[in-house]
Amino acid sequence: MASSRPFGSRPFIVGIGGTTRPESSSEKALRYALALAAAEGADIELFDGASINLPMYAPESAERSEGAERMVAALRRANGVILSTPCYHGSVSGLVKNALDYSEDMCKDPEPYLDGRAVGLIVCGHGWQSTGVVLTAFRSIVHALRGWPTPMGVAINTLVERFDESGAGTQEHTARQMAVMVGQVIEFARLRSQLAKPSPPEAGLHEGGTMPEKRTIERARKDAREGKAASTQAGEFVREEMDHVQEGKHTVSSREQAIAIGLSKARRAGVKLGPPKKGKARAKRSGR
């Protein structure tokens, strides 16, 4: 399914994470990742710990705080998402989980929850055991929300890493992982946006594309019914290609290329031609 959120050249990436403590490791890591996204040409919006300190999500109530409405609106527009959490007792923090629960308000959207969005994940914890467990749990949450976790997830052991939001102090392997993860979020967003662009009606059918015109196919079928040779049937497609070149609908580098394109169209239309002879043109040139 193509994305309903196409964009120009700048994908919109939303970052959610951190703790209620200002400048926590998970918040600094998220700011660093968003800075990388901005450097790649993305528009970004950050929802840090203070921003996601929201009332407990209550699905039975229609009332929403201003902060919750702003976050959900941003998620609806997002082409990609980056999430960052501390490791709390084997899972993500309640603060981050509650923020994600608000995506339930998107359950009836054309692309519900995080559907169609690449989601980059960052976990920060004291030790490798906790980060590995929480990263797995985080992926499961994103899957439940129909998001697409990036192949690269970033686990940061805060026992050995101290850094700021600019990346100073980040270990080399973490910086590489961050760059890969952010790149995957943006690349996926751009690919989805390309799929969302509407194709012109019958693209290629009347503009020298890869599909032959209907009238050309009908002429070739008439030739076949009359018992004419396959080469005669294929000639209809070659003639069409020559006409397109003369009309300026597309350009080719040589007459031979136009013939080759016409023959290729004929084969795809079902004309029983033999396979193209490799190296034939080169042999002719060599014999001159």
Task: Give keywords.
288 residues, alpha/beta, Rossmann fold, 2 domains, 6-stranded parallel beta sheet, 6 strands, elongated
Helix content: 40-55%
Unreliable spans = 198-208, 280-288
- What are the secondary-structure elements, in order, as H or E? EHEHEHEHEEHHHHH
Tally of separate domains: 2
Strand content: 5-15%
- Average pLDDT works out at 85
Q: Assign the structural class, choosing from mainly alpha, mainly beta, alpha/beta, alpha+beta, or little secondary structure.
A: alpha/beta
Number of DSSP E strands = 6
Distance between the termini: 54 Å
CATH architecture of the largest domain: 3-Layer(aba) Sandwich
CATH class annotation of the largest domain: Alpha Beta
Here the CATH topology of the largest domain equals Rossmann fold
Rg from alpha-carbon coordinates: 28 Å
State the fourth-level CATH superfamily of the largest domain. Answer: Flavodoxin domain
Shape: elongated
Q: What's the helix count?
A: 9
Largest sheet: 6 strands, parallel
Q: How do you describe this structure in short?
A:
The protein is α/β, with parallel strands linked by helices and 288 residues long.
